[in-house]
Amino acid sequence: MGEPAPLAITVDERAAAVVVSVVGQLDFGTTPELLRVAAPVVDSGRAVVLDLGRLSFCDSSGLSALVRLHKAAVAAEGTLTLAALRPQVGATITATALDRLFSIVDEVPGTDGR
């Protein structure tokens, strides 16, 4: 069995939104890193897009972190959108009915492939 994929997070300030790209696995061990990087961004009150297109796994602690970030964005009068969910991650969010809470889009806004 190989080592679990590390979590990599990048923040891209764009005119319309801040895009936070999450790559790897979001689980009990990596969730604190997501919160450390993304919480100040959502606390800014800006429109934030979480690009989850390269997130391969999300467990219950990862889902909890996403809910915390959503609540923080609402409290700061900003927005949080989940983008580009892979089928496994999307199925987890749907199975837990969190698709009713989150704004979810098929692709990261402003990345039309040009």
UniProtKB/TrEMBL annotation:
InterPro entries: Anti-sigma_ant (IPR003658), STAS_dom (IPR002645), STAS_dom_sf (IPR036513). It comes from the Bacteria. SUPFAM superfamilies: SpoIIaa-like (SSF52091). Gene3D superfamilies: STAS domain (3.30.750.24). Residues 7-114 form the STAS domain. One of its GO terms (molecular function) is anti-sigma factor antagonist activity. NCBIfam families: ant_ant_sig (TIGR00377). PANTHER family: ANTI-SIGMA FACTOR ANTAGONIST TM_1081-RELATED-RELATED. Belongs to the anti-sigma-factor antagonist family. This is Anti-sigma factor antagonist. The lineage of its organism: Bacteria, Bacillati, Actinomycetota, Actinomycetes, Pseudonocardiales.
